[in-house]
Design a protein that fits this description.
elongated; two-stranded parallel ribbon; alpha/beta
Length: about 240
Amino acid sequence: MYFCTIMQKQISLGSIDVIAFDADDTLWDCQSHFADIERRYCELLSGYGDANKISGELFRTEAANMELFGYGTKAFTLSLVENAVSVSCGRVTGNEIGCIVAMGKELLSLPATPLSGVVEALRRLTGVRKAVFTKGELLDQQNKLRRSGLEPFFDHVEIVADKTEEAYRGLCRRMGIEPGRLLMVGNSFRSDIAPALAVGAWGVHIPFHVTWQLEVTREFDHERLVRIEDISELSACLAT
């Protein structure tokens, strides 16, 4: 894992035209809500197996469905239902399926309250364009951004199916910049940092305390990468 303190390394704002922010677990808490739903889901299905078995099968179901369903709450809910049928050998009841669907709807209305320090960090970033660049289901992500109250801080919002290298190049094209003038800020090394660095952008990695298994990846150091512990440190690692 690469760690670089603010005093050791800074990114020059003069070399950056756009700062893009991931949304879930960077601007607001998301994964801990999913983890809580998974815990309750395992309790609901405890008659069909222990929590480790049900969670393990759910992970495999989500991974298998990724190509068809993509990311987001609705994809997760479909995988919850499919996995319930599988682990119960078809014995899951209509009432249990109803409870699972209700859990998915609960996730679709999570508060998206900005994480501590987010509003102040965004207020400090003046004189540079800011974008939300996140992946997931369009309506769900739009609604979370609206509920968060953060939308006025951003000049551009882009929601994609997946954060591939081509998706980063597309963001740069649409914002009229070269990749080397983009700074990506996010919690996921796999989605926010690695592909951004691969296309020539800069990265600020802010790990979150909960990580989805499908986002776990090998981390590495890089000359265009800074890692900070909290978003409140962001402005201090940007040299004017």
